[in-house]
Amino acid sequence: xxLTNNPPVQSSCQLADAGDFIADYTAWLWGCGATCMRIEKNxxxxxxxxxxxxxxxxxxxxxxxxxxxxxxxSQATYQRQMVTCGINFDLNTRLSSLSWKIADxxxxxxxxxxxxxxxxxxxxxTTQLTVLLTSLANASxxxxxxxxxxxxxxxxxxxxxxxELKHILLKARLDVRLVFMACAFIxxxxxxxxxxxxxxxxxxxxxxxxxxxxxxxxxYINSASDLIDRHYLCSLSRFMDACVLTACLSIGMCAxxxxxxINHV
Length: 265
Prior knowledge:
Helix content is 63%, strand content 8%.
């Protein structure tokens, strides 16, 4: 799909440099959880700012783009494998902001490349405030589904431990599917304490809601967005990835229940 209809401008950097930069940019943007629509718009914005027309093809594991200089007529095609870095809204936001800075001519190509390298090399981090708020949110879900105060407290502890473990394992670059199984397992084991020790009147609700923080909502939403935008292969791929993560969550939960001798919730 050709994303540029503006009059041609003089290229502000070499074709090869621009192609490599935009290809790397799109691969990282996909990896952090951007939709195909956002990838097209952001890459098109950068290409226009650098003085090129762009034609981009997005596949589930690879991206292919062709840049053309409207002035000289020269063109080249670049391919990249999608980066696997996990859903990261902070990275997504900073990469999108970078595209606008380039489009508004606030950054030269060299400055943009340096900032891009800095953004993608920033270590994955989760603040204690994020962990605390996530735990409180999941405890609120427990209350929403009828859990009492004891169940909410157990869910808070289970979510806090599981989310901290998720941060540690993702930082160690462990496969996200194993991360989901491990975190669901730990959260479930902690939550079963409500039933084993008769804490409160709604131990089943505590167990059932202890893993809700792991539900892969973003991949499901991105799948729907890509479907609406007619990126059918990417939509199906993201939907299947979300289903696999949901299955991993279920495996971890079932393993935790089996270990603790809980046959029903």
